[in-house]
Amino acid sequence: MSEPSLPHAHLSKKTFQGNFFEDFELGDRLIHPTPRTITAGDVSLYTALTGSRFAIYCAETVAQQCGFEQAPIDNFLVFHIAFGKTVPDISLNAVANLGYAECQFLTPCFVGDTLSVESTVIGLKENSNGKTGIVYVHSVAKNQHDKVVVSWKRWVMVHKKVPSSPTGVDSLPDLARTVAITGEHIPSGLDFSHFNPQWTSSPYLLNDYQSGEWINHVDGMTINPSDHSLATRLYQNNAKVHFDAFAMQQERHKQPLVYGGHVMSICRALAHNGLANGLWLAAINGGSHTAPSFAGDTLYSVSQIIDLGNIEQRNDIGWLRVKTYGLKNVTAEQISQFIEEPKSLIDSQVLELDYTLLVPAKSDH
Amino acid sequence: MSEPSLPHAHLSKKTFQGNFFEDFELGDRLIHPTPRTITAGDVSLYTALTGSRFAIYCAETVAQQCGFEQAPIDNFLVFHIAFGKTVPDISLNAVANLGYAECQFLTPCFVGDTLSVESTVIGLKENSNGKTGIVYVHSVAKNQHDKVVVSWKRWVMVHKKVPSSPTGVDSLPDLARTVAITGEHIPSGLDFSHFNPQWTSSPYLLNDYQSGEWINHVDGMTINPSDHSLATRLYQNNAKVHFDAFAMQQERHKQPLVYGGHVMSICRALAHNGLANGLWLAAINGGSHTAPSFAGDTLYSVSQIIDLGNIEQRNDIGWLRVKTYGLKNVTAEQISQFIEEPKSLIDSQVLELDYTLLVPAKSDH
Amino acid sequence: MSEPSLPHAHLSKKTFQGNFFEDFELGDRLIHPTPRTITAGDVSLYTALTGSRFAIYCAETVAQQCGFEQAPIDNFLVFHIAFGKTVPDISLNAVANLGYAECQFLTPCFVGDTLSVESTVIGLKENSNGKTGIVYVHSVAKNQHDKVVVSWKRWVMVHKKVPSSPTGVDSLPDLARTVAITGEHIPSGLDFSHFNPQWTSSPYLLNDYQSGEWINHVDGMTINPSDHSLATRLYQNNAKVHFDAFAMQQERHKQPLVYGGHVMSICRALAHNGLANGLWLAAINGGSHTAPSFAGDTLYSVSQIIDLGNIEQRNDIGWLRVKTYGLKNVTAEQISQFIEEPKSLIDSQVLELDYTLLVPAKSDH
Hints:
Three copies of one chain form a homotrimer.
Chain A: E1 29-31, E2 36-37, H1 40-50, H2 55-58, H3 60-65, H4 75-90, E3 94-105, E4 114-126, E5 132-142, E6 148-159, E7 170-171, E8 214-222, H5 225-234, H6 245-248, H7 260-270, H8 272-275, E9 280-288, E10 298-311, E11 314-328, H9 332-340, E12 349-360
Antiparallel strand pairs in A: 1-4, 2-4, 3-6, 3-9, 4-5, 4-7, 5-6, 8-10, 9-12, 10-11, 11-12
Helix pairs in contact in A: 1-5
């Protein structure tokens, strides 16, 4: 995408235009505005916007039989709200969200919890064109009890304020390729000992999956113009590229871009068919939005099981590492072709998401 | 509609493709996945999606003066959520929803209640073309206290897995033409003794209506693309025909179909103008979606009073049996013409819904 | 807009067609139907529909540090719900909403509060064409404890039932040009003594603003078809012009009009960038929808500080009178031009809103 055209006159000094590459320094700590309380309204909207049906978030009865006092909030919703908080400071002038790593969910959220988010700059690399640079941040969302809810790293390509003066900045952080799942990733209270497959209609438990196995989630979901903008506003993510159709007519894609997190959530919701027992999102190991999505696109998803394992001292719960791909506007034949040769649909692939789910390891029903 | 084209290769065995006609046997009991807690978020979304304004659901103060401890959930919303649960097992491969009968609301729902739904196969009839068959089910939604909230029967035309092998199945259930309203249809606590017409702005009580009377509800409501897909996802109804615009381009109508229940709710909301005191949905006697609706259609509704009556030992409440017709994209002249000759607009008629409302029989204001 | 074409036959006497100019008499008191309880679902939808990020409404933690027991409801949301109640009786046959005055917020609202609304006719003026007249009403919304939440005056142009018979009615009310802010406009408990700029990321307090200062809020927001109709139905505002695309094809603009209040809320949300500490809406001094908005329009906003001041015996809070202009489908250059010469973009200007915000006067951080 070319540089956004910003108003050049009469800008009040009180208006914030977002940070540019030169505004970030290694070690900078940014406290993001607008702490946010999560409500039952957010949960219903998330269901309406994505069609998600993972049982533990949908029913108080199921949540209680899984050891929670009340239904927890879907960690994808938690992530989008937390992520949205970082946008005004980190990615308002982003050219692209390049990647995610080490996203870990450490405390479950419930209706009424309030998230406060801050980020630390952990890496900076100027691009050789002198026009842009890559900013790496480590972001942390805490709840009202100061407990870390979710911690993640991401890197974005950001415009430079003065494109013609290279600064030579080049400092890359070490990033883990996967989050090693341990007991700390099991939310307090979670217990799948009494898991009942009738909740989900899926009999498949941890050891029914195999590394390398592909799942075609079959169903498709069309993104309507309001869907993605409602979702993105709900998360209070104010990146300009999602909302201003008039200005976007002048940009490369001639229209607003769908927030990549909405694509994640749609693909996750479609993955219910085949992964219904992948109930708890423990970590996002990595992710990339390989092509943009627009209103009117229809999304499909396929997943490959990458790995799975047990957790020490727990025989009720295991983890499943999954790579889910989002494909847009493809036929059933093309989806089959993708599974045979995953690099074959590069123009239609909109998402590659590597994440780890907690799954019941046994059923007493 | 022609048969949906399903992916034919690489289908994981863990992905559920829905049941086909041969998968159902008389007496089968299906426990539907994903119990669902109803929240304040669902209620607000229902208002935003339909514009419904029936007073008893909108205000705690009104609900309390009607004998409830808190505002009850609109039974149309309850029905759609309960219905949505049955879709993955019953109608994922449905060609058409053919009809409803004996839908009775037996326990009121409140914010926080959790619905669990199951169905029994009560009838099966193979069509003479050997390609499809009709499945009759009796579905029951219970709350977390194991009380029946809503019980209904419906029949759907479902694809056969193997179109060429007729099985000769032909077993039809007995279905009542109407639900006889008794005390069990009055929700616990409901008392219209202190009904105040200022709540609804309508002075019309039970005996102000007459059998045969027609009401033109006058107003129109256009269905936008996001409206119906948001509603259908909120109900976790995952029937493919509502969501996948890309695949639907290959089907007869070239576009997604609006969930028939959304049409019901829009027509019910429009019927507020003339039936504002028809506060409580006690039963749906029958219903059919006489033509499909699409995004962009504008709906209008007219109703005819079929019958009305009192309920033993209650002088505060009576029942009104109403037939509401949904018409799309019609002029005021055409609506008037329809009332004179109801079969005259067959291409524009999208709904015929026969239902029974509880109505205040007197006012102490 | 020409007169709406109403069905002329078979109209049930139970259907309400709205009031015409001749139906109003000076001093008439109208008790509007459907009291409405505000819920957490309404709050989430308001966020999703507008992208509003004013901190005091978003987080329980912030609200509590500002002296509230829980997060209050945004007064713009309160206003739209209260306003919606008046539509069936006042403006169903309105040609145009001409203006607002003396809108004062006197009691804060919280989740669970129920609004009941009534209006008094305070002025009537027949237009010289004999076809329409202007109705002035004073509307008051009270909560379940009978406390006035919001009180406002507005005037609308309404069709006459019989266009050919002038009645000579001409009685105009006195309307104040501004609401003088006093202690009664500070909601009970509100205390900005511990205001922390980290909540909002804006360091600008009361005395950082100057009369005459212009703020270009920079960002744009496109209105999608579902956005405005969802919002308007949420507020249970049933004015025909917003919902019936089929009938509107025959009218001057060939399409539904966006509810002016949705335009207000979008402009207010955009104004967060530059006015993030204008946390509490105390009054709307006046407002006019200078041109209609339609689905697809992209809104921008600019504000001018009109005046500011302190409140007796309070050193933590002051007031800021702001005029916010909504502009549609304009370039950055045109926005700059508008600030230099505010009357230069008359066709693109959709809103002029004069309102007063409560702002922290000091920070202890």
